[in-house]
Amino acid sequence: MAMTDLVPNTGKPITLVIFGASGDLTRRKLVPALASLHSKGRLPSNLQILGVARSDLDDQGFRAILEEFLGGEGMTRPTPAQWTELSSHIHYTHGDVTSSQDLAQVKSRLAEIEGEAADCNRLYYLSLAPSLYRHAINGLGEADMVDDTSGWRRLVVEKPFGTDLESAQELNDIAHSVFREDQVFRIDHYLGKETVQNLLVFRFANAIFEPIWNRNYIDHVQITVAETLRIDERGDYYDQTGVLRDMFQNHLLQLLTLVAMEPPHAFEAEALRNEKVKVLNAIRRVHPQEVAHHAIPGQYRTYRDEFGVSPDSDTSTYAALRLYVDNWRWQGVPFYLRSGKALRSKSTEIIIQFRNPPHMLFPLAEDEDIPANTLAIFVQPDEGFHLEFQTKTPEAGLQMRKAELEFHYHEAFSGQAIPDAYERLLLDALNGDASLFTRADEIEQAWSIIDPIIAGFNRPDAPRPYYYSEGSWGPVEADRFLATDGRAWLQAGRSR
Ligand SMILES: NC(=O)c1ccc[n+]([C@@H]2O[C@H](COP(=O)([O-])OP(=O)(O)OC[C@H]3O[C@@H](n4cnc5c(N)ncnc54)[C@H](OP(=O)(O)O)[C@@H]3O)[C@@H](O)[C@H]2O)c1
């Protein structure tokens, strides 16, 4: 069952083996999240952590490089005593995942830590470059480290999972040749965010929204994931990837599935994921030759000057898409998705725009338009909800004014920090709860939606990415794109 906070201490020790332990993700996210959980008393006391990478480090050296990022945003900083306690459970061993000899040494080190005869559970976390996933998975199989007769064995794989449908299928095949699907936990850290989970509570624990959550009452849905950051030093990677692979295939489609899914029969992994896959299945595929009618590519003006980027690169750093979910609930309701780098502000929000009342009985001036109700769901920052509705202006006849009902986490929970997504995801993986992880078929469906759009962007007759200025909201063509549908991008309920 998802959203439990404590890992049951079953008596069996657990070892978390992090491959890629000297890297950015381990230092900035994984270990600070573990330390935060430990300081809140949420980690089992019999957890050991073994870091593996090629760098020449010993246990002390490894613990020392981990200290720098403890207590990052959304994480509780452990006290010195708590860190001393936790770090006595943290170990390091040299290991190259492409070497069977090295993996044999990792296995011996595990035997030392766990004790030769001990029954133990193990979580293998691949915090490696994606090109190394296959080596690590095959290596674990060949080194006979997946046998789960003495305790469970699980695998966490970071994003990106594949670069297209074919490579994702290939990686799934490799994973399934060594692990069963129920042992594989594919991360999309967006799903670990509190507001994303709260979206499910909001939809399915309240009776008032569900009756209107459909094509009869909803005009359209907008999902925005805006970043202010440029590509930094990731030019080589980003120029091969682009925004559709980096953001749409995973985060934006995941958000769309949570908005559009049918109520699952229970809050458990398979039921939830079955409903999400049904939504992905129902998304109308865009043919590459039609992409120009359904998508707008963009590139920030100085992108081609970035280090590692080809000077004539056509990689999109921004995209806006119109997708349709072909089922009874959503037929004809457009879902507008947009995401980009170097935009005006960092925000992730979902806006549900309801239809106008079928008949306006209040007198309006000739050019007056009453904005329809909107529900804005803020995923980050300032997590919360806004519901906009019309009210009568006092002593002004029947003049109407927009009002908002607001809920914000930081106010409702008296400043309590919203935990970082990795805390939730690490706990769930330790608990064996896969609800917030992506299943093999879900990943493949998502690629099958995005691949034809990427193919369309790459066609010689496709529009080149439209330029936009850093600090703007993307290319003006994205505004025109919505305007042709008689709509405009909304932000926190305001037309921009
Ligand atoms: N950083 C983030 O915020 C973030 C966010 C989301 C997803 N991710 C994903 O997480 C994964 C790791 O990202 P990262 O940013 O931590 O990358 P990174 O900083 O480049 O770290 C990669 C790690 O892999 C190790 N490594 C390289 N080759 C190896 C080999 N043959 N055998 C064993 N270890 C090897 C490196 O250490 P040595 O050189 O010492 O071996 C290093 O510890 C990637 O898949 C990335 O897409 C990262």
State the gist of this model.
This protein is an alpha/beta fold and 496 residues long.
What does this structure look like?
By secondary structure, the protein is an alpha/beta fold. 34% of the residues lie in helices and 20% in strands. The strands form 3 sheets. A 9-stranded mixed β-sheet has the order 14-13-12-11-7-10-9-8-15, with helices on both faces. A 6-stranded parallel β-sheet has the order 3-2-1-4-5-6. A two-stranded antiparallel ribbon has the order 16-17. 43% of the residues are buried.
Name some characteristics of this structure.
496 residues; alpha/beta; Rossmann fold; Dihydrodipicolinate Reductase, domain 2; 2 domains; binds NADP nicotinamide-adenine-dinucleotide phosphate
Radius of gyration: 24 Å
CATH topology of the largest domain: Dihydrodipicolinate Reductase, domain 2
Structural class: alpha/beta
DSSP summary: helix tally? 14
Shape: globular
Q: Which strands sit side by side, in order, in the main sheet?
A: 14-13-12-11-7-10-9-8-15
CATH top-level class of the largest domain: Alpha Beta
Given as residue ranges, the uncertain stretches (5+ residues, pLDDT < 50) are none
Tell me the total number of β-strands: 17
Query: How much of the polypeptide forms β-strand, as a percent range?
Result: 15-25%
Nearest-integer average pLDDT = 92
Query: Which CATH architecture of the largest domain?
Result: 2-Layer Sandwich
Helix content: 25-40%
- Structural domain count: 2
Distinct ligand kinds = NADP nicotinamide-adenine-dinucleotide phosphate
CATH-wise, what's the superfamily of the largest domain?
Dihydrodipicolinate Reductase, domain 2
- Which sheet architecture does the biggest sheet show? 9 strands, mixed
State the separation between the terminal residues, measured CA to CA: 41 Å
